Amino acid sequence: MRRREDKECHNFLEFFHKCSGAISHLNQHQLHEQLKSGRALVMFDGLDEVFDPAQREDIITDIHRFTNEYRDVQVIVTSRVIGYKPQRLRDAEFHHFILQDL
């Protein structure tokens, strides 16, 4: 998530395609089509690692926009409990789970 903070990419589709280095075999149009078809799992890992509260809120807004555009994609957002405010993602119909120590 911190790599998204610097705003070098304008949205998550652009970020996935050219800024994250995670997807190299699809062009941006192919990635868009793959996401539209719902044949993807997207993980936004480390929301708590965005330390600036305003930037964290911006990223939550961007995640909400992403899930509105790609409704059939399975999305997982991870965060430590400390400092996490669940309401905005609950409002976006995310289900919340807490992992327990074994």
Explained architecture:
With 102 residues, this protein is mostly helical. It has one domain. The chain is built from five helices and two strands, in the order αααβαβα. The protein has a two-stranded parallel sheet with strand order 1-2. Helix 4 (53-69) links the parallel strand 1 (41-44) and strand 2. The radius of gyration is 14 Å and the shape is globular. The model has no long low-confidence stretch (mean pLDDT 86).
SSE topology sketch:
Blueprint: H1 2-5, H2 12-19, H3 28-37, E1 41-44, H4 53-69, E2 74-77, H5 87-91
Parallel strand pairs: 1-2
Features:
102 residues, 8% strand, 5 helices, single chain, two-stranded parallel ribbon, 2 strands, mainly alpha
Short summary:
43% of the residues lie in helices and 8% in strands. The protein has 102 residues and is mainly alpha-helical.
**How many structural domains does the protein architecture include?**
1
Major sheet size, sense and barrel closure = 2 strands, parallel
Order of helices and strands: HHHEHEH
Backbone structural class: mainly alpha
Q: Extract low-pLDDT stretches.
A: none
- Shape designation: globular
Enumerate the strands of the largest sheet in spatial order, edge to edge or round the barrel. Answer: 1-2
Terminal Cα separation, in Å?
27 Å
Helix content: 40-55%
Question: Per DSSP, what share of the residues sits in E-state strands of 2 or more residues?
Answer: 5-15%
Number of helices: 5
Radius of gyration: 14 Å
